[in-house]
């Protein structure tokens, strides 16, 4: 079955390359880009194909399949011709509600629904913003999927996780390289964000422990602290920028894309191992290690960014 799924995924991305060539779906470098050559955009469509495969194989619910199909469709159109905020936000909102409904959030206290919706939509946008250098989306997705895979509360979703991870490996073959053949595009990054958010919601509902949000720690902190930093600088947070830590490392510091992407992967994988170990052998409340790890990461992030900005500041 997995051999057949692999062949389908490979055929899907190769077919997409022909479509992208035909309709000129490419990413041209600009002043805010972290790349320097024209590259096919939207190769991450293979992530959505994996979810649809999982649905037809009985490994994913119709709610998740429909949610991913919705965001992938509007993102594909947006990759070809930029859309206004309203249609994109409306589709993201409906898809998020589908995921929350399927995960049982609607059965919790009423005040949980707007909070969960706000956090879910925030996660989708943060994940999309972090898709900026070769390899980072694929490698980070693998780190998070690996973290989910070993939690017994998500044992029913292991088939889905395996198929999505397989699609990441297929995409990664064309993306995790110094000169990428394709980028995930909105169709890929947003589809993946919905899948990862879906698994996180299920884990949180099953355990009731915010501790497991650490599986999103690096992207979550980089996204949230970057927004905070831009607000302090009175910048428009809805405009494109190059203010994330990974962007400073890859652009201003001149680090290679793959070393930066591998660094994010390794750091999140290490955090995931700690999460699994603590959750397996816990003898204290999970809130204590949660805050210890979060504070450590925040201090490390702020220090790293301070040192970079200090080095870049003109004498």
TrEMBL record:
Entry GO terms, CC: plasma membrane
GO biological process terms held by the UniProt record: cell wall macromolecule biosynthetic process; cell wall organization; lipopolysaccharide biosynthetic process
Membrane topology of this protein: Multi-pass membrane protein
Segments passing through the bilayer: 44-74, 109-126, 133-151, 157-176, 183-205, 211-232, 253-278, 284-304
Record's keyword terms, sorted: Cell membrane, Magnesium, Membrane, Metal-binding, Transferase, Transmembrane, Transmembrane helix
MF terms in GO: metal ion binding; phosphotransferase activity, for other substituted phosphate groups
The protein's Enzyme Commission number: 2.7.8.-
InterPro entries in alphabetical order: Glycosyl_transferase_4
Superkingdom of the source species: Bacteria
Enzyme kind, highest EC tier: transferase
Cofactors required: Mg(2+)
Record has Transmembrane as a keyword: yes
Predominant localisation class: membrane
Matching PANTHER family: PHOSPHO-N-ACETYLMURAMOYL-PENTAPEPTIDE-TRANSFERASE (PTHR22926), UNDECAPRENYL-PHOSPHATE ALPHA-N-ACETYLGLUCOSAMINYL 1-PHOSPHATE TRANSFERASE (PTHR22926:SF3)
Entry protein name: Undecaprenyl-phosphate N-acetylglucosaminyl 1-phosphate transferase
Species of the source: Lunatimonas lonarensis
